[in-house]
Design a protein that fits this description.
With about 260 residues, the chain is an alpha/beta fold. It has seven helices and eleven strands. It has helices spanning about 5-15, 35-45, 65-75, 140-150, 175-180, 205-210, 245-255; strands at about 20-25, 50, 90, 95-100, 115, 125, 135, 155-160, 190, 220-225, 230-235. One of its GO terms (molecular function) is peroxidase activity.
């Protein structure tokens, strides 16, 4: 079920880490009338390199076996029927279907879909923070420590991403950064140093900027992400963490 642009980006970012994207063209909604060769040529125009299977049905008596199986494991809203192209199924390394996303949900649709490396070199799925309000910052320690102390128990998760793109303010190694932040009493999660602009933009920031547009202008930019993994507000560096407490309170109050 096809949606090429973002899938090509996901393939570029995650293929070497083990992601395999499998595409099944379907013409049950009249969107894939072409031959297999025409479909391949169209897909390749987006820079795709992943596997494209033969065109087939995803509903009805001629449903392809793979979709028959997936729908038996992960039903949609009320029914198992696929309602439109671009439906997506996520399958883990053991071959178990773990998540189903509807046709109108883009492949990269919330921060939960991203895996990042923390400052200790550990891979951290962003879905770890599902159900919590996240404040993503590149970073400003003093007031953030106070916000963390005040709101952590109520569901706030502060995620710090050190960045050395602005005036060389984070030149240190992970060990040096950890030693420095310890002087402020930092207890919130820190991730590995990364770019927030340009070709090598870290995946979390690539996603956040796609939803709340514009390059980061300096360190200390902040993004507020709700309990469902959706970015809801962006704050420029000059806005101090204490100035956004009302928005944090409002986000924490929402179910």
């Amino acid at each position: 079920m096809l949606n090429y642009t973002q899938l090509a980006e996901l393939d570029r970012q995650y293929r070497d880490r083990g992601l395999q994207i499998l595409l099944y063209p379907c013409n049950q909604w009249g969107q894939e009338p072409g031959s297999h060769e025409e479909i391949l040529a169209f897909a390749q125009s987006f820079g795709t390199t992943f596997t494209v299977f033969e065109k087939g049905d995803v509903n009805g008596s001629r449903t392809q076996p793979v979709f028959k199986y997936l729908k038996s494991k992960l039903r949609g809203t009320l029914v198992s029927t696929i309602k439109w192209n671009f439906t997506k199924f996520l399958i883990d390394r053991r071959g178990q279907p773990v998540k189903r996303l509807g046709g109108f949900t883009p492949p990269i649709h919330m921060v939960d879909d991203i895996v990042s490396t923390d400052i200790h070199g550990v891979l951290v799925p962003m879905e770890t923070f599902r159900g919590r309000v996240c404040l993503v910052v590149n970073v400003n320690y003093t007031q953030l420590v106070e916000l963390d102390r005040k709101y952590r128990a109520r569901g706030l998760e502060i995620l710090g991403f050190p960045c050395n793109q602005f005036g060389g303010q984070e030149p240190g190694t992970p060990e040096e950064i950890l030693a420095f932040v310890a002087t402020f009493g930092v207890k919130f999660r820190l991730f590995e140093k990364a770019d927030v602009n340009g070709e090598h933009t870290q995946e979390v920031y690539r996603f956040l900027k796609s939803r709340l547009e514009g390059d980061i202008t300096w360190n200390f930019a902040k993004f507020l992400v709700d309990r469902h993994g959706t970015p809801v507000k962006r704050y420029e560096p000059k806005i101090a963490p204490f100035e956004i407490e009302a928005d944090i309170e409002a986000a924490l109050a929402e179910a």
